[in-house]
Specification:
Helices cover 34% and strands 22% of the residues. Helix 2 packs across helix 3 and helix 4 packs parallel to helix 5. It is α/β, with parallel strands linked by helices and 268 residues long. The chain binds adenosine-5'-diphosphate and magnesium ion. The site of adenosine-5'-diphosphate (ADP) has 10 residues, from helix 1.
Length: 268
Protein backbone atom coordinates (compact mmCIF):
# COMPACT_ATOMS: atom_id res chain seq x y z
CA UNK A 1 0.00 0.00 0.00
CA UNK A 2 2.34 2.74 1.24
CA UNK A 3 6.06 2.92 0.66
CA UNK A 4 7.90 -0.18 -0.35
CA UNK A 5 8.98 -2.25 2.62
CA UNK A 6 12.52 -3.43 2.10
CA UNK A 7 13.01 -5.58 5.16
CA UNK A 8 15.81 -5.21 7.63
CA UNK A 9 18.47 -7.50 8.95
CA UNK A 10 18.39 -8.63 12.57
CA UNK A 11 21.62 -9.64 14.24
CA UNK A 12 22.50 -10.82 17.72
CA UNK A 13 26.20 -11.24 18.40
CA UNK A 14 27.04 -13.01 21.64
CA UNK A 15 24.06 -11.35 23.31
CA UNK A 16 23.75 -12.15 27.02
CA UNK A 17 21.22 -11.03 29.58
CA UNK A 18 21.55 -11.14 33.33
CA UNK A 19 18.59 -10.24 35.50
CA UNK A 20 18.54 -9.29 39.15
CA UNK A 21 20.51 -7.30 41.66
CA UNK A 22 24.17 -7.67 42.57
CA UNK A 23 23.29 -10.12 45.35
CA UNK A 24 20.94 -12.28 43.26
CA UNK A 25 22.16 -12.36 39.68
CA UNK A 26 20.67 -14.77 37.22
CA UNK A 27 21.97 -15.45 33.74
CA UNK A 28 18.92 -15.76 31.47
CA UNK A 29 20.62 -15.66 28.07
CA UNK A 30 24.14 -16.87 27.46
CA UNK A 31 25.91 -15.45 24.40
CA UNK A 32 23.15 -15.85 21.89
CA UNK A 33 24.20 -15.31 18.29
CA UNK A 34 21.78 -15.43 15.42
CA UNK A 35 21.09 -13.47 12.29
CA UNK A 36 18.03 -13.07 10.12
CA UNK A 37 18.48 -11.64 6.64
CA UNK A 38 16.13 -9.05 5.22
CA UNK A 39 12.92 -10.67 4.03
CA UNK A 40 13.46 -13.93 5.90
CA UNK A 41 11.48 -15.55 8.67
CA UNK A 42 13.34 -17.07 11.59
CA UNK A 43 11.79 -18.93 14.48
CA UNK A 44 13.19 -19.41 17.94
CA UNK A 45 11.97 -22.48 19.74
CA UNK A 46 12.84 -23.73 23.20
CA UNK A 47 11.53 -24.71 26.63
CA UNK A 48 9.61 -22.26 28.79
CA UNK A 49 11.88 -19.83 30.58
CA UNK A 50 14.83 -20.24 28.20
CA UNK A 51 14.71 -16.56 27.25
CA UNK A 52 12.72 -16.45 24.01
CA UNK A 53 10.64 -13.44 25.02
CA UNK A 54 13.77 -11.73 26.33
CA UNK A 55 15.34 -12.03 22.87
CA UNK A 56 12.30 -10.39 21.26
CA UNK A 57 12.24 -7.68 23.92
CA UNK A 58 15.87 -6.86 23.17
CA UNK A 59 15.26 -6.63 19.43
CA UNK A 60 12.19 -4.49 20.14
CA UNK A 61 14.30 -2.22 22.37
CA UNK A 62 12.16 -2.81 25.47
CA UNK A 63 15.20 -4.19 27.28
CA UNK A 64 18.94 -4.32 26.58
CA UNK A 65 21.62 -7.00 26.58
CA UNK A 66 24.05 -7.01 29.50
CA UNK A 67 26.70 -8.41 27.15
CA UNK A 68 27.20 -8.64 23.41
CA UNK A 69 25.20 -6.77 20.78
CA UNK A 70 21.69 -6.66 19.36
CA UNK A 71 21.44 -4.92 16.00
CA UNK A 72 18.84 -4.10 13.38
CA UNK A 73 20.14 -3.01 9.98
CA UNK A 74 23.68 -2.86 11.32
CA UNK A 75 22.88 -0.48 14.15
CA UNK A 76 22.68 -1.26 17.85
CA UNK A 77 19.11 -1.22 19.11
CA UNK A 78 18.74 1.52 21.70
CA UNK A 79 14.99 2.03 21.93
CA UNK A 80 11.68 0.86 20.46
CA UNK A 81 10.76 2.28 17.06
CA UNK A 82 8.09 2.07 14.36
CA UNK A 83 10.43 0.01 12.17
CA UNK A 84 9.71 -2.93 14.50
CA UNK A 85 6.15 -4.17 15.08
CA UNK A 86 5.13 -6.53 17.86
CA UNK A 87 2.39 -9.16 18.10
CA UNK A 88 1.71 -10.95 21.37
CA UNK A 89 0.01 -14.19 22.34
CA UNK A 90 -3.16 -12.25 23.19
CA UNK A 91 -4.60 -10.11 20.39
CA UNK A 92 -4.64 -7.05 22.74
CA UNK A 93 -7.44 -5.30 20.84
CA UNK A 94 -9.10 -2.36 22.58
CA UNK A 95 -12.54 -3.70 23.55
CA UNK A 96 -14.40 -0.39 23.20
CA UNK A 97 -13.27 0.14 19.60
CA UNK A 98 -14.52 -1.53 16.42
CA UNK A 99 -12.20 -3.68 14.33
CA UNK A 100 -11.77 -0.76 11.95
CA UNK A 101 -10.79 1.63 14.73
CA UNK A 102 -8.47 -0.92 16.32
CA UNK A 103 -6.56 -1.35 13.06
CA UNK A 104 -6.52 2.41 12.40
CA UNK A 105 -5.30 3.14 15.94
CA UNK A 106 -1.51 3.09 15.34
CA UNK A 107 -1.86 5.50 12.39
CA UNK A 108 -4.21 7.86 14.13
CA UNK A 109 -2.02 7.98 17.20
CA UNK A 110 1.24 8.55 15.40
CA UNK A 111 3.02 5.28 16.11
CA UNK A 112 3.37 4.56 12.42
CA UNK A 113 6.03 7.03 11.45
CA UNK A 114 5.55 8.21 7.87
CA UNK A 115 2.21 6.40 7.65
CA UNK A 116 -0.89 8.10 6.26
CA UNK A 117 -2.57 10.69 8.40
CA UNK A 118 -5.36 11.78 6.08
CA UNK A 119 -8.64 10.13 7.03
CA UNK A 120 -9.41 8.91 3.51
CA UNK A 121 -5.95 7.34 3.17
CA UNK A 122 -6.24 5.65 6.55
CA UNK A 123 -9.67 4.33 5.54
CA UNK A 124 -8.33 2.91 2.28
CA UNK A 125 -5.38 1.20 3.95
CA UNK A 126 -7.36 -0.22 6.86
CA UNK A 127 -9.85 -1.71 4.41
CA UNK A 128 -6.98 -3.07 2.31
CA UNK A 129 -5.45 -4.90 5.26
CA UNK A 130 -8.81 -6.06 6.64
CA UNK A 131 -9.56 -7.60 3.24
CA UNK A 132 -6.07 -9.13 3.24
CA UNK A 133 -6.79 -11.02 6.48
CA UNK A 134 -10.35 -11.94 5.47
CA UNK A 135 -12.16 -9.41 7.67
CA UNK A 136 -13.49 -7.14 4.93
CA UNK A 137 -17.05 -7.57 6.20
CA UNK A 138 -16.24 -7.24 9.88
CA UNK A 139 -15.13 -3.61 10.12
CA UNK A 140 -17.91 -2.53 12.51
CA UNK A 141 -17.72 -5.45 14.92
CA UNK A 142 -16.32 -5.07 18.42
CA UNK A 143 -13.82 -7.63 19.76
CA UNK A 144 -16.42 -9.32 22.01
CA UNK A 145 -18.50 -10.06 18.89
CA UNK A 146 -15.63 -11.95 17.28
CA UNK A 147 -14.15 -15.43 17.64
CA UNK A 148 -10.57 -15.87 18.83
CA UNK A 149 -9.51 -16.48 15.24
CA UNK A 150 -11.13 -13.26 14.03
CA UNK A 151 -9.47 -11.31 16.84
CA UNK A 152 -6.15 -12.80 15.84
CA UNK A 153 -6.76 -11.76 12.21
CA UNK A 154 -7.57 -8.23 13.38
CA UNK A 155 -4.35 -8.09 15.41
CA UNK A 156 -2.43 -9.24 12.34
CA UNK A 157 -4.09 -6.54 10.20
CA UNK A 158 -3.11 -3.92 12.78
CA UNK A 159 0.47 -5.21 12.79
CA UNK A 160 0.64 -5.09 8.97
CA UNK A 161 -0.92 -1.63 8.90
CA UNK A 162 2.10 -0.17 10.69
CA UNK A 163 4.19 -1.37 7.70
CA UNK A 164 7.16 -2.11 9.94
CA UNK A 165 10.12 -3.77 8.27
CA UNK A 166 10.58 -6.11 11.20
CA UNK A 167 7.78 -8.15 12.73
CA UNK A 168 8.39 -9.59 16.20
CA UNK A 169 5.85 -12.27 17.04
CA UNK A 170 5.74 -13.89 20.48
CA UNK A 171 3.69 -17.11 20.29
CA UNK A 172 0.94 -15.17 18.48
CA UNK A 173 -1.17 -18.25 17.68
CA UNK A 174 -0.58 -20.28 20.84
CA UNK A 175 -4.04 -19.60 22.30
CA UNK A 176 -5.92 -20.63 19.14
CA UNK A 177 -7.52 -23.98 18.37
CA UNK A 178 -5.67 -26.24 15.93
CA UNK A 179 -7.82 -25.43 12.90
CA UNK A 180 -7.69 -21.66 13.37
CA UNK A 181 -4.02 -21.81 14.11
CA UNK A 182 -3.36 -23.57 10.84
CA UNK A 183 -5.36 -20.93 8.97
CA UNK A 184 -3.34 -18.17 10.66
CA UNK A 185 -0.05 -19.85 9.77
CA UNK A 186 -1.08 -20.01 6.12
CA UNK A 187 -2.27 -16.42 6.21
CA UNK A 188 0.94 -15.18 7.79
CA UNK A 189 3.01 -16.96 5.16
CA UNK A 190 0.96 -15.36 2.39
CA UNK A 191 0.95 -11.82 3.71
CA UNK A 192 4.62 -11.56 4.65
CA UNK A 193 5.75 -12.58 1.18
CA UNK A 194 3.13 -10.66 -0.77
CA UNK A 195 2.70 -7.25 -2.34
CA UNK A 196 5.87 -5.18 -2.70
CA UNK A 197 6.68 -5.82 0.91
CA UNK A 198 9.62 -7.76 2.18
CA UNK A 199 9.29 -8.18 5.90
CA UNK A 200 11.79 -9.72 8.25
CA UNK A 201 10.09 -11.85 10.87
CA UNK A 202 11.39 -13.12 14.20
CA UNK A 203 8.84 -15.58 15.50
CA UNK A 204 8.62 -17.45 18.81
CA UNK A 205 6.77 -20.69 19.26
CA UNK A 206 6.61 -23.87 21.33
CA UNK A 207 5.41 -25.78 18.31
CA UNK A 208 7.97 -27.51 16.09
CA UNK A 209 5.50 -28.06 13.24
CA UNK A 210 4.56 -24.38 13.25
CA UNK A 211 8.24 -23.43 13.18
CA UNK A 212 8.96 -25.67 10.20
CA UNK A 213 5.85 -24.54 8.33
CA UNK A 214 6.42 -20.81 8.47
CA UNK A 215 10.18 -20.26 8.66
CA UNK A 216 13.31 -20.16 6.59
CA UNK A 217 15.46 -20.75 9.67
CA UNK A 218 14.81 -22.39 13.04
CA UNK A 219 16.95 -21.77 16.11
CA UNK A 220 16.62 -24.25 18.93
CA UNK A 221 17.46 -23.06 22.45
CA UNK A 222 18.56 -24.90 25.56
CA UNK A 223 16.83 -24.49 28.90
CA UNK A 224 17.97 -21.77 31.25
CA UNK A 225 20.39 -20.14 30.75
CA UNK A 226 19.27 -19.96 27.15
CA UNK A 227 21.80 -20.76 24.46
CA UNK A 228 21.32 -21.51 20.79
CA UNK A 229 22.11 -25.19 20.45
CA UNK A 230 20.98 -25.81 16.91
CA UNK A 231 20.34 -23.91 13.73
CA UNK A 232 18.27 -25.51 10.98
CA UNK A 233 17.95 -24.02 7.54
CA UNK A 234 14.47 -25.24 6.62
CA UNK A 235 14.86 -27.21 3.40
CA UNK A 236 11.21 -27.32 2.31
CA UNK A 237 9.63 -25.43 -0.55
CA UNK A 238 7.57 -22.52 0.73
CA UNK A 239 4.78 -22.95 -1.79
CA UNK A 240 4.06 -26.62 -1.31
CA UNK A 241 0.47 -27.34 -0.28
CA UNK A 242 0.20 -27.84 3.47
CA UNK A 243 -1.02 -31.44 3.28
CA UNK A 244 1.73 -32.59 0.95
CA UNK A 245 4.33 -30.92 3.10
CA UNK A 246 3.31 -32.22 6.54
CA UNK A 247 2.83 -35.73 5.23
CA UNK A 248 6.15 -35.90 3.44
CA UNK A 249 8.77 -38.21 5.00
CA UNK A 250 11.43 -35.48 5.05
CA UNK A 251 9.17 -33.09 6.97
CA UNK A 252 8.02 -35.76 9.43
CA UNK A 253 11.56 -36.93 10.07
CA UNK A 254 12.96 -33.45 10.79
CA UNK A 255 9.93 -32.59 12.91
CA UNK A 256 10.36 -35.65 15.13
CA UNK A 257 14.09 -35.16 15.39
CA UNK A 258 13.53 -31.62 16.70
CA UNK A 259 10.73 -32.69 19.03
CA UNK A 260 13.01 -35.38 20.51
CA UNK A 261 15.82 -32.90 20.93
CA UNK A 262 13.46 -30.42 22.60
CA UNK A 263 12.06 -33.06 24.96
CA UNK A 264 15.53 -34.03 26.11
CA UNK A 265 16.06 -30.40 27.17
CA UNK A 266 13.14 -30.34 29.55
CA UNK A 267 14.04 -31.93 32.89
CA UNK A 268 11.70 -34.72 34.01
N1 LIG B 1 12.17 -8.46 33.83
C1 LIG B 1 12.66 -9.58 34.37
N2 LIG B 1 13.21 -9.58 35.60
C2 LIG B 1 13.75 -10.70 36.12
N3 LIG B 1 13.77 -11.89 35.50
C3 LIG B 1 13.24 -11.97 34.27
C4 LIG B 1 12.65 -10.82 33.63
N4 LIG B 1 12.19 -11.20 32.41
C5 LIG B 1 12.48 -12.51 32.29
N5 LIG B 1 13.11 -12.98 33.40
C6 LIG B 1 13.60 -14.34 33.60
O1 LIG B 1 14.41 -14.70 32.48
C7 LIG B 1 14.16 -16.03 32.07
C8 LIG B 1 13.70 -16.04 30.62
O2 LIG B 1 12.39 -15.49 30.53
P1 LIG B 1 11.59 -15.37 29.17
O3 LIG B 1 12.41 -14.62 28.20
O4 LIG B 1 10.26 -14.83 29.48
O5 LIG B 1 11.48 -16.91 28.73
P2 LIG B 1 10.54 -17.62 27.64
O6 LIG B 1 9.89 -16.57 26.83
O7 LIG B 1 11.48 -18.49 26.85
O8 LIG B 1 9.57 -18.46 28.39
C9 LIG B 1 13.13 -16.59 33.04
O9 LIG B 1 13.80 -17.28 34.06
C10 LIG B 1 12.47 -15.35 33.59
O10 LIG B 1 11.99 -15.58 34.89
MG1 LIG C 1 7.85 -16.14 26.45
Amino acid sequence: MGAQIMGAQIELIGASKTFGSRTAMRLALDQVSLSVKAGQTATVIGPTGCGKTTILNMVAGFTHPTGGRVMVNGRDVTEPGPDRGFMFQRPTLLPWLTVFDNVAFPCRHGHGLGRPHRADQIEAEVMHYLARVGLGDARDLHPHQMSGGMQSRAALARLLMAESEVLLMDEPFAALDAQTRLAMQQLLKQVIKSEQSLRTVLFITHDVEEALLISDHVFLMSASPGRIIRHVEVPFGKNEPYRDLVLSPAFTELKHELIDQLERLVPG
